[in-house]
Amino acid sequence: MAQARTAVGVTAQDSENTRFILLISLVATIGGFLFGFDSGVINGTVDGLQRAFDSDSVGTGFNVASMLLGCAFGAFFAGRLADLYGRRTLLIVAAVFFIVSAWGSGVATSSPEFVFYRVLGGLAVGAASVMSPAYISEVSAAHYRGRLATVQQIAIICGLFAAFLSNYLLAKFAGASTEPLWGGHEAWRWMFWMEGAPALLFLVALLFIPESPRFLVVKARRERALAVLTRLYGTTAGTAKLGEIEASLAQDHHRPRFSDLISKATGRVRPIVWVGIGLATFQQLVGINVVFYYGAVLWQAVGFSESDALLINVLSGGLSIGACLLTVVLIDRIGRKPLLWIGSLGMAASLGLVTVAFATGSLDAGGKLVLSDNMGVLALVAANVYVIFFNLSWGPVMWVMLGEMFPNQIRGSGLAVAGLFQWGSNFLITWTFPMLLAGIGLAAAYGLYALAAAVSVVFVLKFVHETRGRELEQMEG
């Protein structure tokens, strides 16, 4: 009955409260935009990094993947620190890190210096990746929580799209990413500096949103929590929601800690934690960030010019946004689980076609893979179909589920562990791709990603449980 009362209260709220929830959710999603921009900007800078730092394939792979080390630690510690200091506070710290990283990555004169600033940016990305969806989930109601949380993935893809478009235009104006642009600085450096503007906007906007009411309840700041809940849902629904949150914490009311991830009944890690780890890991094992981070290198490797390769990235970004918009329509109607297994099937099939296309290629005198016209078209179309299926399913849905699937007591800790595995897997996939490319070739590498997508179908059907329409206070683990 609590859920019914809450649903009625939310649907009866006035338009001002609705606009307020939408507004603060959009502020939180700027973190997602920066997550996407910071992840995608590296795509157009690989040639510049290789030339500036004289790095080989292993060194280049580490320069590109170094941010992901920061992401892993940022996601892991952000969950715990957010339980201590608040979701909003951690997002403010992340905004500052975004600004410093954007500036430092562009001025770096050596690999160690570049890696330092990228790791700093990675800490911000990792924190934003888990805190933005958690914040959105904790201020929105069950019947539209999925749609609002999916906006986070749209923001991520918009950030990627903006980075791809910025990279393309800057390289086009300069003539190439390695050529000087404004102030005598190479275009690839300006690609990093472009991130400074949205990062500053994020910092300023965060100063005007409230702290998560569920965090305030955990910290025994009842009056502040009630004020926020009233602002979000109205007096009646806000008071009812406060009671639900307090009741969900009353059975085991202590400060959240990592040991809560261990079931007192069995002495083992809670099943919901393993599901979170599986979701986070499979999202990366399908190889999506190879497309996002190495897209320009990939398409140049099969015969496209740098300019055309960067333009293909823009196309992929646009398709990704369209797929995410479709997810917004579907996620609260058909649920999370169907989208996941449909996406897994689609990714396995499209990655299989990419593998077939690359397997038909031959190497020219310069060691570059050459495809026939038909196979080149097949690879291009199949790769973009893969991007569509990912952004229709695992891209947004994984983040939605991680933000909502854990009970209140373990949400911060559960997100920390899942985030660590997500970004750790991301790092391994990104770092190893140049070595796979040089060692076993594009076809075999994409074959591994296709296999992971096929296995993820089984994982979803067997282990993932639907969360659509359930209040956060009803989550079990």
Automatic annotation (TrEMBL):
Transmembrane segments: 20-37, 57-78, 90-109, 115-136, 148-170, 190-209, 272-297, 309-331, 338-359, 379-402, 414-433, 439-461
Domain Major facilitator superfamily (MFS) profile: 24-468
Name the UniProt record assigns to this protein: Sugar porter family MFS transporter
Organism (species): Marilutibacter chinensis
Localization of this protein: Cell membrane
Membrane topology: Multi-pass membrane protein
UniProt family annotation: Belongs to the major facilitator superfamily. Sugar transporter (TC 2.A.1.1) family.
CDD domains reported for this sequence: MFS_XylE_like
Phylogenetic lineage: Bacteria, Pseudomonadati, Pseudomonadota, Gammaproteobacteria, Lysobacterales
Keywords: Cell membrane, Membrane, Transmembrane, Transmembrane helix, Transport
